[in-house]
């Protein structure tokens, strides 16, 4: 029975009212006009059904959504008091070097908080890493400001905490008292959290690094300091969903559980009851992620439907699972995991009747995989900005390997690890290393990687509605050879190439904290350039204090570049050889191809910079030292190097100084140039320093931007790139006063976040500064 026939009959009774309820919640929360339009269209569709019972249920749910939204949003977020006592969720404990993080419940307000604490010594780290009991902590706390979006298309961390019901993030400064709380047997939820934590700790002690990460991820839904290649390899191939616990995994466990019970000759009535209990335990032990909760709820409703003959359709079961989930997590569909798990299972329900018409089982599997992968592309594009053409093939091969080979091996190894010593599992580590290396080699085939860029929200909704329309037409015509299907399908597949139709260029000063990174993209995607990459100077610490290799670029520059559809950078300019200007060059090179790197000749004299250029990711990259004799011109954009004039030392006063001309606008980029370099620049003959926009030198320090230099430039706008609450107190009051004296408007990344400009290829339009804050 397909989507149309399902909705025409009494089965499918709950689909429209529940979708209206969820859309109402999301519209109230997000204030998105597109969501409101879709909700209105849905209500019109419900009226057209002319079914009184569905109309009444829809009205009741819409009214209840208003009360439910008000109830959820009116919860007070009380400040942390001096006597705050936190009850730690044991299975949320994560360690990263000397950083400890966990979720905890405030005993007085009952609010859930995210807590971070810097461990004092190795002994304290050992205690937390081995502890699986519920802890109650009293101490000195400091509430931390949670940042929203600071870069265009960036991750909204504050919004994420809000929709996942975490009231605030706090810093634990000092532990005054800590004790283990004995959990009574009837608090099953806390008991299961302790059991999950005990299993995670056991795996970390018993197995090799790769084995423990696969095991904790696939059996318990837990990731802690996962090796970089394990996380990124499968994500880049577009099959990361296979390594995140979802309905496929719960189906694996429940099928195995039922098989064991039936083999033990347990009657079906008891199997039914035990199955429901096991589902609850399984969802709890696997971390209660959106995918597992959805799968668990849908499975329970399906079993109850079979047992009590409720005559619910698969779409009804799906709808009721979504409704129940929203009662506890109203904004589950605002999370990436929630959207993927519910949308993909909805698609499975819809396309199964189409697939069943194919007689050959083998072709059924191939066609199902390709169709589901294709239909999931809009969400993949919207959130991850890229996809890999090989994902269809990898998905087809990897799925069976994972569930037929890897998962059983992991489960068997876990169960036997309580009686065997860890030396017996070296073979499993070797198998996973081989498995991982195959993924790494496949990932090196960059020819198949496509970076789409960030889709507008309205386009995402249009694509999803188009897909549903295509499936309805397909079912009506009983064939995909239909003009409407072909046209809509072709338009969907043309979306990745829409970036080549954008007539606007972008100049962005990326907020990377204390450092510099400036991005230039030409109209119609005709060129992508980066001036400096940002980076952080590392400090020597003891072995136990070393944290995972996460860089500023992983959260700032790289996601932004991919959101702009950047697959490769034509040129990366490095102003000088300081870590806050080139430190993340290696990480960017791992994610995005770099065709050429340009730098001052003095920078190459610095050994740390030379080592970076010699890395494998830059083996095919052209490298060139440039001076004031170098010029570039492309599509009406002029970029002239004004400084240095000779080989220097690669330090601040040896920074590249570039004059960028876009339309009639002149933008002067000065790196970390200080007063000495500014004087050298002013003393050059036949050089015009007049500029409309100045990127101030050395993050607004008082060692740069002297009055004489600023008068020579006479900028209307000055941009200072510096970190929020940085240790150097940049920018200095003296520098700000200097800009004030010449009536220059100052934008700062520490206050304004990313600052960017847009211009048009076909007119003299050059925008005012856009800011994120």
Describe what is shown at a glance.
The chain has 773 residues and is of the alpha/beta class. The strands form five sheets. Strands 16-15-13-11-10-9-24-25 form an eight-stranded mixed beta sheet, with no helix packed on it. A seven-stranded mixed beta sheet has the order 17-18-19-20-21-22-23. Strands 1-3-4-6-5 form a five-stranded mixed barrel.
What this model shows, in words?
With 773 residues, the chain is α/β, with parallel strands linked by helices. The protein has 5 domains: 3-73, no CATH class; 85-182, OB fold (Dihydrolipoamide Acetyltransferase, E2P), CATH 2.40.50; 209-357 and 407-442, no CATH class; 460-500; 502-537 and 552-771, 4-Layer Sandwich (Metallo-beta-lactamase, Chain A), CATH 3.60.15. The protein contains 29 helices and 25 strands. Strands 16-15-13-11-10-9-24-25 form an 8-stranded mixed beta sheet, with no helix packed on it. A 7-stranded mixed beta sheet has the order 17-18-19-20-21-22-23. α26 links the parallel β20 and β21. 37% of the residues are buried.
């Amino acid at each position: 029975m397909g989507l149309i026939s399902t909705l025409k009959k009494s089965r499918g009774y709950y689909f429209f009212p529940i979708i209206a309820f969820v859309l109402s919640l999301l519209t109230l929360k997000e204030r998105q006009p597109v969501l409101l339009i879709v909700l209105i269209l849905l209500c019109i569709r419900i009226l057209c059904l002319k079914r009184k019972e569905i109309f009444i249920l829809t009205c009741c749910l819409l009214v209840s959504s208003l009360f439910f939204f008000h109830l959820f949003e009116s919860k007070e977020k009380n400040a942390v008091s001096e006597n705050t006592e936190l009850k730690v969720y044991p299975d949320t404990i994560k360690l990263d070097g000397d950083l400890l993080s966990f979720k905890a419940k405030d005993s007085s307000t009952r609010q859930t908080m995210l807590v971070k604490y810097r461990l004092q010594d190795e002994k304290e780290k050992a205690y937390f890493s081995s502890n699986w009991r519920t802890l109650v902590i009293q101490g000195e706390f400091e509430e931390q400001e949670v940042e929203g979006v600071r870069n265009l298309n960036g991750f909204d961390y504050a919004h994420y905490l809000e929709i996942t019901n975490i009231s605030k993030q706090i810093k634990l400064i000092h532990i005054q008292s800590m004790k283990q709380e004995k959990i009574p047997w009837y608090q099953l939820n806390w008991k299961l959290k302790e059991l999950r934590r005990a299993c995670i700790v056991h795996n970390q002690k018993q197995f090799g690094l790769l084995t423990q990460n696969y095991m904790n991820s696939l059996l318990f839904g837990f990731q802690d300091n996962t090796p970089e290649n394990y996380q990124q390899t499968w994500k880049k191939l577009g099959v990361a969903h296979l390594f995140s616990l979802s309905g496929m995994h719960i189906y694996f466990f429940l099928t195995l559980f039922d098989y064991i019970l039936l083999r033990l000759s347990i009657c079906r009535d008891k199997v039914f009851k035990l199955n429901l209990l096991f589902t609850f335990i399984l969802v709890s032990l696997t971390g209660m992620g959106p995918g597992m909760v959805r799968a668990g709820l849908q499975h329970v409703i399906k079993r109850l439907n079979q047992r009590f003959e409720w005559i619910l359709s698969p779409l009804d079961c799906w709808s009721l699972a979504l409704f129940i989930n929203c009662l506890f997590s109203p904004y589950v569909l605002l999370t990436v995991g929630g959207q993927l798990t519910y949308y993909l299972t909805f698609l499975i329900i819809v396309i199964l009747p189409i697939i069943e018409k194919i007689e050959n089982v083998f072709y059924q599997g191939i066609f199902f995989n390709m169709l589901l992968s294709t239909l999931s592309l809009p969400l993949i594009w919207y959130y991850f900005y890229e996809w890999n053409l090989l994902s269809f093939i990898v998905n087809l091969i990897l799925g069976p390997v994972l569930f037929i080979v890897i998962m059983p091996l992991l489960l068997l190894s876990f169960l036997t690890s309580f009686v065997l010593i860890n030396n017996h599992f070296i073979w499993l580590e070797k198998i996973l290393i081989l498995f991982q290396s195959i993924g790494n080699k496949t990932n090196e085939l960059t020819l198949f990687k496509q970076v789409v860029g960030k889709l507008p929200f309205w386009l995402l909704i249009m694509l999803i509605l188009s897909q549903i329309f295509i499936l309805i037409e397909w079912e009506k015509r009983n064939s995909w050879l239909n003009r409407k299907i072909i046209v809509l399908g072709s338009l969907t597949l043309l979306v990745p190439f829409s970036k080549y139709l954008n007539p606007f260029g972008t100049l962005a000063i990326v907020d990377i904290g204390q450092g510099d990174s400036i991005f230039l993209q030409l109209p119609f995607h005709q060129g992508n350039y980066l001036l400096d990459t940002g980076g952080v100077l590392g400090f020597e610490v003891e072995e136990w204090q070393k944290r995972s290799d996460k860089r500023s670029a992983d959260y700032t520059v790289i996601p932004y570049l991919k959101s702009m559809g950047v697959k490769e950078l034509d040129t990366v300019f490095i102003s000088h050889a300081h870590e806050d200007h080139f430190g993340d060059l290696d990480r960017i090179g791992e994610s995005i191809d770099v065709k050429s790197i340009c730098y001052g000749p003095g920078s190459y004299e610095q050994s740390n910079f030379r080592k970076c250029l010699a890395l494998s990711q830059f083996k095919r990259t052209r490298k060139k030292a440039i001076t004031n004799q170098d010029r570039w011109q492309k599509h009406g954009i002029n970029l002239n190097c004004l400084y240095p004039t000779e080989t220097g030392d690669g330090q601040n006063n040896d920074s590249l100084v570039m004059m960028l001309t876009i339309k009639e606008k002149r933008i002067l980029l000065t790196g970390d140039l200080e007063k000495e370099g500014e004087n050298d620049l002013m003393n050059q003959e036949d050089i015009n320093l007049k500029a409309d926009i100045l990127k101030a030198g050395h993050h607004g320090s008082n060692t740069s931007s002297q009055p004489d230099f600023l008068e020579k430039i006479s900028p209307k706008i000055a941009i200072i790139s510096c970190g929020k609450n940085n240790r150097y107190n940049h920018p200095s009051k003296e520098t700000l006063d200097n800009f004030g004296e010449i009536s220059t408007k100052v934008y700062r990344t520490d206050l304004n976040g990313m600052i960017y400009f847009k211009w048009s290829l076909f007119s003299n339009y050059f925008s005012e500064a856009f800011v994120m804050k």
